[in-house]
């Protein structure tokens, strides 16, 4: 495998290619193949971008059909048949059955574009500048989004420009068992000199992906919604990583029965890994004036097409969601066992997550790296997350066959055992 | 054409669909077709994203070939064969023949992602926070990029969060004939109490697209490079709209013989309208640590593939660039004649631009809208730019057949005449 | 009493003259006299600026002696005999006996000038932009200081400019009994994605004056010092209100045995109510270059003179501090009784504070205003503090005769009883 | 003269004591005396704070009379007889004769306090965050004011926190003879993508003191007022250094016949060098809510008293202003001659200023320092200003006797000659 050109020409900023120093060529569902022909089980899935697996045949066929004729590929924010088809499908398959009434903004195809648009919309709608965000939250790295992202790695690489407009509060569980962190938020809201500028909105991940697979309690999320309503604050759920079925429902907030004012989606939204994102907003919040937020790639018709195909294929009924939940339980059970074994070695470890967004917290990045490094040797692509990379994270395709899932779990278990014994 | 769903579900922020209230379906090279079967000549080309036309057959074939097998589509920042092929092609076809030595960062697939990365890199490399930008500059709308973008429309829609870290100076020509605006910049740099924080970098478009097709003088650009060198300031050329051949050379700065420290590309880079962007940097500026800037879609293999195909097909020799220059002269000549006719009607008007990035300044957005509105009725998609939308702007595909080009120019001339007579 | 001119000409921003709508003329120690000849006991003492009472004879005599000759009044930052005398006295009377080694900056004569200088010094010394501050902290209202001040009243009156560079954390007790709020700080410091930018310094009041007479625990303060040391963070004690003997020692932090890296003093520092402030810093932190921070009134020789006289007269031995502690116990005891009586009326109330910085928290600003309003009718000037003005606050002169102190306490008790009965 | 304690204990930030390394003790009108008994003519006058000279007998007598009884010294923002007397006097002596109708805010006693209040008031009144300021402007160093101050020395010492909310434009003359810099301002205001956020206000010094004694043209100032009116922007004149008679009229803007919306005064306002400042505002702009801006020393009764005495003594008729103008002409003539002599030595030099705010620009700080250093040896205290300290600056007391004025000018001339010959 020739990597010299890649190593020479690509910026030092590259990172995954250091953990997985091979050249990938092919990929199908939960399998990756490198240039030497070696296969890997994929428990990373594009960091949650490939919920329907690599090269899903139905979604891909929709793309090929669209490409077979000279259908428009790039449409700015024109009306296109592809966009209309996506919106109709999204409304019929996702919004209506859930009783949701949202307008849709296509803010440019990346998650951080969506977050920038969402928080700006919240500010414009409420006439306040502050956005509350949570410890270990990750919402993107462009400067607006970065104000709500906790990672020092990014925050310290802005060349000395502090971010403006975000206030961090402790996420569920951050202050330990028995402390409801929302007590602090509620106290600050009622406190005229607590230093918290009354926020326009709160942005929250229901399961923090980059932050370490921290799943907030459903009661906590429900209470957060209530606090927002009581104080005229907008609830923004960033469902970029946890959405599109990852937790066992299309939207991750469905578990808690909350209805956010604003939602961001991206990553798996296109179904095939194409760049795509959207912002959902309650119609009365749509205070945008024409053209006030823009971006060149906000009308990428190929993504509209594959996204509609994904919705058609997987979300017409509940069976897919149920499959995800079933597999999630398998992972939870196996991760629980692995964590128990690790604890027996004298290392604190615990299982966590929701649906197929699962992790094992092993307490340190070094230990986690040993496990995932060994796993890669054994044919499993799996990554870590958390503030110190201390959580071994499973984001396998939701479509993974049981055979591959179990094989991947076996590899992980063996790798943990050989790494830590 | 059914537009109700689109009108109902899409956010008010949509803008092009107001000027062109039809549903587009198909597109080939410089022709767009709406759902009713009506054809339009396309002088907008995805706001400069479709330099090689819609659905260019060679580029599309490369995409179809790639899709024909289960090649990886979404690869985070893995090493992939697709990325390697792109980098090799870019080096061989573009960098080497021009004597350029750049490293490449893929910062996420949109222009604003690239600008955020570029200015942050400049700040980190120089340890200074300020970025000089120019009147009428447009560099994106995420909060970091917005600090360098002049449009009030965006700047006033941040919900009360002022941008931080950009200082505006007058672009070439802004202070009128006979004033070299760089005198002001140079004076400020040497002035310890002029209020200009010594910048890490200067970001500049050699032809301002959104700002009104303002082409800076080549001497001015050369002098700007000299000032930057003399004061240890990085020169960042934002070639997102003016690059990829738009001005008659691959990079717009080649005309002036300058070598920027950092370059941003996007829009037409993928060749087919797929979201894609890159940051080029002199190797010694690559101070990024692994993972300090990220984004989900920075390894979109389909775009690597089409981008490489575009380079192969159009840039192996100079013939394409020469064609662009030839067509640019046609447009310049016709725009000059139209402008002259408009002046005869007592309206100030003038032609401007470089290569196939051309405009007619008619002095007011109302007049420009009348012309482009009439043009759309007559089968030509053409937009305006400038601070008041006062410039009728031609960004036709560089690949436009002469027949379509001349037909489009005829329509524009007739439209101007019927609108203003 | 003629107030029309005052009401007509002075800005709406005036506030104390609304609570006390009389024209004051004379004042001696703890007594104020209005133009109608009515006397009031003063439990406000210039919001803590008149620790030695109004027109203290010894301090005033020093001023008169200085004025008797043409001694320099305003000396920029010249060397003057007055400044030298102050520095010598401060070193001999205050620093040396306490084993403290500080350099002194005169940053301009107001508290907010001192805070701006202190936090900027911390940032410059550590090369980090963030300053941790605490809920209900008050450190001034100029934009730099305001970043560390919690009051919404001020924070929302910046015309839409968010403050930059301050992070709020919960003060001691903020999360309720049994929660050490420093656990949260320590957790955030160790958390690479908690959203807390590693601070240059922590600014803290050991007793929060404007924030509601919240006295932090001495163990808490000691632990805070330890955390700062462990993480190379500077500890800045803002002793503007709590210093100069208010808590029963010259510096409020002496009680806890901590040694801050930086200290701010103002308010009672001049002894007679003249504008004066200083920043104390450990010598190795003095990274200022000449002239990097300035202000016209940083060499106000009258204040140097009165300040030196105050130190001479009150701080040569411990007797004054002991007197303050004795009186503080009287107030504490009486406030405790008043609070108990209020609780008997079914209103939550509690006594709090340290030394002669004492308050009764009555739970609401309305109730507190009723009490202080009635007190003013009865001849006692006393104010409220806290986020809702819910704390009746005693900041009487430290020099108050027992007779006046007891009379003031009697008035307060009667006023509370007649207001709440 | 003992300076060890001063050198050891005072922060490195001290600056004037480096240029004048003596210990000053006494001062009368335009004479300073050091501890060794040496006398100096004072052409610095507290950087413009001592317009009425050191220890003016009439003003001092008012202070002594006030102190003779137990009149209140420190009054927060109480109504006091001292404040009322000041306001009545200010209205009668200054405002009414000039047909001005202003309300008055006492924002704390320093200039930067006043500027912070003024720009915040402008923002609150207009609902916009931006303040336009000018090259070489100096308006204070607290973070809000610093956004409008051009000096890098201060701007680069904020520990990496960029200022927010100020936009710099070229001051009159900055772009050379023949260019009216307001053309640029006006063009930017009308330009929707020029990058200038529509400002709430413009802050301007009519003669820039720290910036190098740059006096704007009166027509330029009048035009600036017109532009502000036309665009609903507030005109803020910072008259902290140029006001109180320095230019030959009480307010420096009287020369141009403009009426600012907001005015800041400080420095010489108290008459005796006591810290004191005020903000004047058109009554309809007084949008402050009670207590929205505060500060401990905003009711310093001694300064009210001396300020009223200064107005009484100097401003009841025009004679004092005429004297200032007469002396200003003497200085202008002599400075012109000195500049001419310097030019004869082959060094570019020119005279500039208005009233008794006068300078000789000698092109470099080194040359200027040589002259002022020699002058100090010869018994004249005189300082430099300008971005490089290249302007030898005369800010002598307005009350200077002709004898001292001429002697000072003689010393300066001799010093220039001996320094440069």
From TrEMBL, chains A, B, C, D:
Annotated organism of origin: Billgrantia gudaonensis
Family the UniProt entry places it in: Belongs to the class-III pyridoxal-phosphate-dependent aminotransferase family.
GO BP of this protein: ectoine biosynthetic process
Record keyword Transferase present: yes
Protein name stated in the entry: Diaminobutyrate--2-oxoglutarate transaminase
PROSITE patterns (alphabetical): AA_TRANSFER_CLASS_3
Keywords: Aminotransferase, Pyridoxal phosphate, Transferase
Superkingdom assignment: Bacteria
Pfam families: Aminotran_3 (PF00202)
EC category name: transferase
One GO molecular-function entry: diaminobutyrate-2-oxoglutarate transaminase activity
Cofactor(s), names only, from the UniProt record: pyridoxal 5'-phosphate
Stored InterPro entries: Aminotrans_3, Aminotrans_3_PPA_site, Dat, Ectoine_EctB, PyrdxlP-dep_Trfase, PyrdxlP-dep_Trfase_major, PyrdxlP-dep_Trfase_small
Metabolic or biological pathway, per its Swiss-Prot or TrEMBL entry: Amine and polyamine biosynthesis; ectoine biosynthesis; L-ectoine from L-aspartate 4-semialdehyde: step 1/3
Enzyme Commission numbers on file: 2.6.1.76
């Amino acid at each position: 495998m020739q990597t010299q050109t890649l190593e020479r020409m690509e910026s030092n900023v590259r990172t995954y290619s250091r953990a997985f120093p091979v050249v990938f060529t092919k990929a199908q569902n939960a399998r990756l193949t490198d240039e030497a022909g070696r296969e890997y089980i994929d428990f990373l899935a594009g960091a949650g971008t490939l919920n329907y697996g690599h090269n899903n045949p139905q979604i891909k066929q929709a793309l090929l059909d669209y490409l077979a004729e000279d259908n428009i590929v790039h449409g700015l924010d024109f009306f296109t048949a592809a966009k209309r088809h996506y919106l109709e499908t999204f409304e019929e398959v996702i919004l209506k059955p859930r009783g949701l009434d949202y307008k849709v903004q296509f803010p440019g195809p990346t998650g951080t574009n969506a977050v920038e648009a969402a928080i700006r919309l919240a500010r414009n709608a409420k006439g306040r500048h502050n956005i509350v965000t949570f410890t270990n939250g990750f919402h993107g790295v462009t400067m607006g989004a970065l104000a709500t992202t906790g990672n020092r790695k990014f925050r310290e690489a802005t060349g000395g420009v502090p971010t403006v407009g975000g206030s961090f509060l402790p996420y569920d569980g951050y202050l330990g068992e028995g402390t409801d962190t929302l007590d602090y938020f509620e106290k600050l809201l009622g406190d005229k000199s607590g230093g918290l500028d009354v926020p326009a909105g709160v942005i929250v991940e229901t399961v923090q992906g980059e932050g370490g697979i921290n799943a907030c309690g459903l009661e906590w999320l429900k209470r957060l919604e209530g606090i927002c309503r009581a104080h005229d604050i907008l609830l923004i759920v960033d469902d970029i990583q946890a959405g599109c079925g990852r937790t066992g429902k299309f939207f991750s907030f469905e578990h808690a029965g909350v209805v956010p004012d604003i939602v961001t989606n991206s990553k798996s939204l296109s179904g095939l890994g194409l760049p795509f994102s959207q912002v959902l907003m309650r119609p009365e919040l749509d205070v945008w004036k024409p053209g006030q937020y823009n971006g060149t790639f906000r009308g990428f018709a190929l993504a509209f097409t594959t996204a509609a195909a994904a919705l058609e294929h997987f979300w017409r009924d509940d069976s897919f969601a149920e499959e995800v939940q079933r597999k999630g339980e398998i992972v939870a059970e196996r991760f629980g066992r692995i964590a128990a074994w690790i604890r027996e070695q004298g290392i604190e470890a615990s299982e966590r997550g929701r649906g197929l967004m699962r992790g094992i917290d092993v307490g340190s990045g070094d230990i986690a790296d040993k496990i995932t490094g060994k796993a890669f040797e054994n044919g499993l692509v799996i990554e870590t997350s958390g503030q110190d990379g201390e959580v071994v994270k499973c984001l396998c395709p939701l479509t993974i066959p049981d055979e591959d899932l179990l094989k991947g779990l076996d590899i992980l278990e063996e790798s943990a055992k050989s790494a830590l014994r």
